[in-house]
Every structure is written in C-alpha cells, then in structure tokens.
Specification:
- By secondary structure, the protein is α/β, with parallel strands linked by helices.
- Among the domains are: 127 residues; 35 residues, no CATH class; 99 residues, Winged helix-like DNA-binding domain superfamily/Winged helix DNA-binding domain (Arc Repressor Mutant, subunit A).
- The protein has six helices and 33 strands.
- It has a 22-stranded mixed beta sheet. The protein has a five-stranded antiparallel beta sheet with strand order 25-26-27-28-29, with no helix packed on it.
- A hairpin with a 4-residue loop joins β23 and β24.
- The termini are far apart.
Length: 531
C-alpha cells in the first residue's frame, strides 16, 4: 500500500502543496461529501451530506445543505442550507444562500442569485443579475442577464430577453429574441430577433419567425407567425399575421387579421381581414375590408368596407373597385365577379355583370331559380322589362320600366276568404261617386321631356279630382330618393295615388245599381206595351 493511500485511510485527507483534497465522505461531520480545492466545503460546521465541491471556495459556506454540486472557483460559495443546486463555472451561483433546485452552467451564471429557486441558467452571464426571481430558464450567453426579480421567464438564445428586469411569464427562443423587453409580460417570441423591440409596455404578444414583430415596442395582443410578419408594427395592438411578410408594412394599424404569404403586406389601416396568399396585398389606408381567397382584393389600395369572396383581385371583369368602397363581390376560381353589391347604388348584380354594357345588361340585377321558375330584375331600356318571371323559357309575368304589368292569363287576385272577415253588410250606393268621376286623357311630364310630341297619351283619373269626390280612394305617400349610402330617404314632397282596385269594386256596385234600374225600366216598358 502506498504512503498516500495510508494517509488517506488514516486521516481521510491529503495535503498537496499546501492545499487539501478531502476524500472522506464524512468530512467534517456530514456524510457522502466530496471536496477538491482550497476551502472547498470548508465550513467548519458542515452537517449536510451528498455534496460535491470542486474548486477553490466552492460550497465553502455550506452547513446543512445537501445534494449540491459545485464545480468552479467560488461556485455556490455562499450557499448555507440550500439543497439540490448545480453550479458549474467560475462564480456560478456565487452568492446564493438558501435558493434551491437551481442549475447554473457558465461563467458567472446566476452569480447574483440569493434566495431564488428553480432557475436554470446555461451560458456566459446567463441570469447574471437575478436575485429573487424564480422558475427562470436562460440558455445562451447573456440570456436574461438583466433579470432581477422577474419570474416564470424562459430565454433560449444569445441575448434572448437580455434587457428583461422585473417582467414575468415571457418566453424568448432565438438570438436577440425579446432582447429589449424590460417589464412587458406574457410575451412569446420564437426566431432570430423576433419581438426584439418589445419594451416596457408591450404585453401579450406572440411572434414566431425570424424578425417577426421585431419593431413592436408598446403594442399589445399581437400575433405574428412567419418570417417578417408584422415586422413594421410599432405601437399597434390586436393584429394577427400568419405567413411570411404578412402585415409587414403595418405600423400603427390595429385589429387587422392577415393569413397567407404577403397578405395585407402593404397595410397601414385598421380593421382589415385577408385570408389567402397575396390577399389584400396592396391595401394601404383602406379600412374594414375583408378578402377571402388567393389574391382576393390584391389591387385594392384605399377602398374601405369592401368584402370579397373568391379570387377577384379588385380590378377585373370590367369591375374596378381599387379605390371604391362598400362593395360586396362574390367571384369564381378565375376571379370573375359573378355577383356584386354596391352600397352606393343599393342593388345586387348577379350573373353577367359586365359593366361596359349597362344599357342592355342593367345596373341592378337580381336573379334566382326555384323549381323551374327564373326571376330576373334589372334596369333596362325604356321598352324593356325591369322584373320578369319565367316558367322554363316562357315569360309568365313582367313589370315594365314604364309601369305596365303583364302576365300570361290576365288573372289577378286578392285574399277574400270569409274566415278572415267580420261585420259583413251590403255596400251603400256608389252611383253618385262613379257618376261624378272625370275620366281624362293625359301625358306624363317625364315622357314628354324624353319624347316630346311623340309621348304616349293615357286614359285615366287625376288623383286630386278623385279626392274631391271620394277621399278614401286616394293614398298620399312621401317621395323618396336614394342617398350616397344606398338608403331611401324622404325628399320632403308627396305624391297622391288612386286605389284603382277599390275603384273597380265601386264600379261593380254602381253597375249592379244600373242593372237594377234597367230591369225596372224594362218591366215598366213591357207593361206600357201591353196596354
């Protein structure tokens, strides 16, 4: 047996060049301890066991702490009663006293930690100034190196969350991710420089992708997924960008949603939604637009309150709404607009909507099909029909632009079931009313303005003349026009209408009276002839 081994067996220590290698696990009173280095585990009242200390002054203040591992000069040098810590590196966990379950690997990693627990720091100066913050994870040089009391933060990457001090519940993965954040909370950044500018007042942001949301400073509740997504946004909030360079140019616009490569990439306005590659790509200051489909609304720039479904790009099929507003466009897979509505005109166009031939195709058209019937409505020429109902290909009913109504069997009806009526009595005489009416020939002023002497002459009544005879035959209605929002509004004038359907019934009653008189006269004439 060598002399060194004999000494070790006898004294459980080995003095080398004035230093001491403590080999006995019971040194001085604890069990299963291993110490290598001057003053390592050198506290005179050690009772804790299962500690490993390698390096000058490593774990030199430990008293009752157990299962600690300290490798490096001054590693865990101030720990007294704490347990389950791992410190590897010069001054790692240097001033920690009672903090437990910490892991520090790297020069001065967690070297300011005092009583905090459950922290993990891997890298040069990682969590270097943390004092009481708990449940922190820092992996990378200078990761979370300014954190003092902030808790529940995770930083993976060089300088990740490098400026964070007291903020909580942030996650940064990538070089310089969330590097400027100080007190902002509940932010998540994954990717190189992701969320790199988020500072003190930026909260609840999620950015995933290289330079995603890298200019956000104080904006809240933003979500960016993809390279460069939301990369221009600074103080705006409530934006969602999913796809490379989605909402890339947005600075202060809020409440936008962009899903797809380059969706809303030029946007600076607010409340826009775009779903699909290049959807809403060129919208700048336009607001409250919704575009659904690849390239949907791609050429709209300043228009607002538009809704596009399909691949219509904002300027095709003779429909240009690049700067227009309040359009609803439904298009096919080629981008052809098959149906659109414009708030300014107050009407829908369905089917062939080529606006270059509005005199024949109309401006406002509504088409529908049900069990073989086809309904078409639209503005047409002066001789055409504005509302049509077909059975297969046969016209059954039409309303002409001049007001005429035609159908195939000339049959019109009204609900007249006795079950719906009460207080039924015979009508009084209508003889005098019908006799007093003046039947006139006349022309409409609008038609005279259009056709001059060739304007048609009509047979009918004048409402004011009828009113003096039978006021109940007259209905007075407010004149209306369409405003810029496509809504009907009163003009301040009125127009009188004649209730011809009631007039017809008055005429039937008067005819019955005339028949009774005729029959009486016939009887009297027959009696005179018989004398």
């Amino acid at each position: 047996m060598s002399r060194a081994r004999e000494l070790a067996d006898q004294h459980k220590t080995l003095s080398v060049d004035g230093g001491t290698i403590k080999l006995d696990g019971n040194y001085p009173t604890g069990t299963n301890n291993v110490a290598l280095g001057d003053a390592a585990l050198g506290g005179g009242s050690l009772s804790g066991g299962s500690n490993v200390a390698i390096g000058t002054s490593a774990l030199d203040a430990n008293t009752s702490g157990t299962t600690n591992i300290a490798i490096g000069v001054n590693a865990l040098g101030a720990s007294t009663t704490a347990s389950d810590n791992v410190a590897i590196g010069h001054s790692a966990l240097k001033v920690s006293t009672t903090g437990a379950r910490n892991v520090a690997v790297g020069y001065e990693a967690l070297d300011a930690n005092s009583t905090a627990s459950d922290n993990t720091a891997l890298g040069y100066n990682a969590l270097g100034v943390n004092t009481t913050g708990n449940a922190l994870v820092a992996v990378g040089g200078n990761a979370l190196d300014a954190n003092t009391t902030g808790a529940d933060n995770t930083a993976l990457g060089y300088n990740a969350l490098g400026a964070n001090t007291t903020a909580n519940s942030n996650t940064a993965v990538g070089v310089h991710a969330l590097a400027a954040n100080t007190t902002g909370t509940y932010n998540t950044a994954v990717g190189a420089s992701a969320g790199a500018a988020i500072a003190g007042d930026g909260n609840y942001n999620t950015v995933i992708g290289a330079i995603a949301g890298d200019a956000i400073t104080t904006g809240d509740d933003n979500t960016a997924v993809g390279r460069g997504a939301l990369s221009g946004t600074t103080t705006a909030s409530l934006n969602t960008a999913i796809g490379s360079v989605a909402l890339e140019s947005n600075i202060t616009g809020a409440s936008n949603t962009a899903v797809g490569y380059a969706a809303l990439t030029a946007n600076t306005g607010s409340d826009n939604s775009a779903f699909g590659v290049d959807a809403g790509k060129r919208i700048t200051t336009g607001t409250i637009n919704s575009c659904f489909g690849k390239g949907a609304g791609e050429y709209i720039t300043t228009g607002s309150k538009n809704t596009i479904l399909g691949r219509y790009n904002g300027n095709q099929d003779s429909l240009d709404i690049r700067t227009g507003s309040t359009y609803i466009v439904l298009s096919d897979g080629e981008g052809n607009a098959r149906m659109y509505y414009h708030g300014g005109s107050g009407g829908w166009r369905i089917g062939d909507i080529n606006t270059s031939s509005s005199t024949t195709r109309g401006h406002n058209i509504w088409r529908g099909t049900h069990e073989g019937y086809h309904i078409i409505q639209g503005k047409s020429t002066s001789s055409g029909n504005t509302f049509q109902v077909y059975k297969e290909t046969t016209l059954n009913f039409a309303v002409n632009v001049n007001g005429n109504v035609t159908n195939t069997n000339n049959s019109y009806g009204a609900i007249s079931d006795i079950k719906l009526k009460q207080d039924i009595v015979d009508a009084s005489s209508q003889w005098d009313d019908i006799q007093a009416l003046q039947v006139r020939n006349f022309k409409f002023k609008t038609e005279v303005a259009e056709s001059g002497d060739n304007a048609k002459s009509y047979l009918g009544l004048i409402a004011q003349e009828v009113e003096s005879v039978s006021p109940n035959l007259i209905e007075t209605v407010n004149d209306q026009t369409i405003n810029s929002e496509g809504e009907p509004v009163n003009t301040g004038t009125t127009t009188k209408q004649v209730k011809y359907s009631i007039l017809y019934m008055k005429a039937v009653k008067a005819l019955q009276e005339a028949m009774t008189r005729i029959e009486t006269l016939e009887t009297e004439v027959a009696a005179l002839k018989a004398k």
